Model the fold of this input.
Amino acid sequence: MKKTKALFCWSGGKDSALALYKILKQDKFEVIALLTTVNEEFRRVSMHGVREELLEEQAKQIGIPLEKMYIKKNSSNEDYEKRMEAVLNKYKIMGVEYAIFGDIFLEDLKIYREKNLAKIGMKAVFPLWKKDTTELLNEFIGLGFKTVLCCTNNDFFDEDMVGKTITKDFIAALPPNVDPCGENGEFHTYAYAGPIFKSEIPVKIGEKVLKTYEAKCMKDDQEVTEVKGYWFVDLLL
Done:
């Protein structure tokens, strides 16, 4: 049976890895490429802060071509959408009908993705949608995947946690206000081993950096500005 061509939107983290695993097991789609957004200035995966060469190593070990979409440091949403549309149209010409995502339960993001794809006549697939995140993470570990925390929200984790590999002990110790898959932005990961990889990627833990920003929030019915932050670890091959 002829497979349907698809583009996989790859972040490099655990949700992407598990979603890709499920898609490949279905044997329904032919994944043409892994699409990742990379910061043009720093050459790192957007949001995750992972070096470009580690991203390339993932694609090499998976055996699927990598499509990098470069965006500027302070790129506007309009510029992002234009670049994304150009990439998607490139693959649509090649016969790609679907884009696959690892999102789990962020409804607004799902709608946003579906609307942007609909503009050019493509559809979205969400293999992990509405699944229990504790069960997903336990399944991920049970399958033999390994993933390291590359970015953590300072509201939930201190410096010691970034750079740690996720284990069952990590899941058991999570506070109730943290989603097990970090679906609300509590943390991001880099997957370096598992059934989709030919070989385990040797990852070294480098420098840890706290990146801060100012955020407005309500406190005692008044708008105040608070300093928020994310811990990033420089992962190295």
